[in-house]
Amino acid sequence: MSAGRSVPDTPALAGVWEGLRAAMADDPSVVAVRPAARPPDATTSTALRELAEAVGARRVRDLPGPAGTVAGVCAAAAAAGLRPVVDLTGCAAATVLGPLAHTAAVSAATSALPVVFVVDDWGEPPGAQPVHSLLVPLTGLTTVLPSDGHDAAGLTLAAIRSSGPVVVARSAAADHLPSRAGPAAEVPLGVAAVRRPGTDVSVVAVGALVPVALRAAARLADEGVSVEVVDPRTVVPLDLDTVLGSAVRTGRLVVCDDAPAQGSVAGEIVAAATVVHSALKAPPLRITRGDPLGGDGEGDDTVTEWDIRAAIRLVLHAD
Predict the structure, then answer these.
(1) Angle between the 42-55 and 12-26 helix axes, to the nearest 10 degrees?
(2) Distance CA 313, CA 310 (A)
(3) Which residue has the higher pLDDT, 57 or 307?
(4) pTM of the model
(5) Which fold has domain 12-176?
(6) Which position among 10, 45, 200, 268 has the lowest Cβ density within 10 Å, counted as fewest Cβ atoms?
(7) Residue 295 — pLDDT band, cuts 50, 70, 90?
(8) Comparing C-alpha atoms, which of 222, 231, 233 is closest to residue 194?
(9) Strands across the sheet containing 234-236
(10) 140 three-state secondary structure
(11) Under CATH, what is the fold of the domain 193-316?
């Protein structure tokens, strides 16, 4: 991405297209593809039309056929030297990515497969498992989950330039969150970020829960509690050095993932924390969808700021 270019107040989906636009400007092998049979979406259609105007219609294509067929064709194109970015938003992405994960794992030993899939983290039906947690047990696919538009642009750019394959899972909640100010740049895959330093407890928040955790940390700071907030950014594979390093520094760990507990990223992090248990002052706590702690009275099973604050208080008083 060119020096000085920024993505101010950009929602996550727009950030993805900003990263794609920058990659296409730098590398003629990058092409944008989507299944012609996918459900219509005004936002995505507008973004791709503007992209076609910028780089040429030959590099932005609707391909006939179902999503699985298009994804397979693009994987073959990647093996042949192109760098396809496949828009699977609005599609049942999990059914497409499962078979491709096996192909990617097998091909990784012999060749690169530089293909990127952009998916909705939460799809259909309502209440279904988010894509990022479905991909946790799969090998062969790197999965990134931006928490704002700035990281969406930088992670997408890094994904396209990588040897792939990479899944960029966008969150509907993060689409409506302003990005951090400053110039956009390539964000390295597999590297977590400490969003707020702290000394009393580490909160690892996944995806759109990062700003929720930051609000909880700001509230608790008024009570004299210093909360460190860590954003994994890449959920497969996890940057456990940063995550566990934070937990060791503060001595307490809370992990928040707006996904069902079974097979969650939160579960993986808490399991990994067993290797540093002797350095912790309290057992690590996982807060996931369906495990409300805060009693906010909203009747929703999503993870809220109330839940995160309640979990932090629990680990603070557990030692």
Answers:
(1) 20
(2) 5
(3) 307
(4) 0.87
(5) Rossmann fold (3.40.50)
(6) 45
(7) very low
(8) 231
(9) 60-63, 30-35, 83-87, 116-120, 166-170, 142-144, 234-236
(10) coil
(11) Rossmann fold (3.40.50)
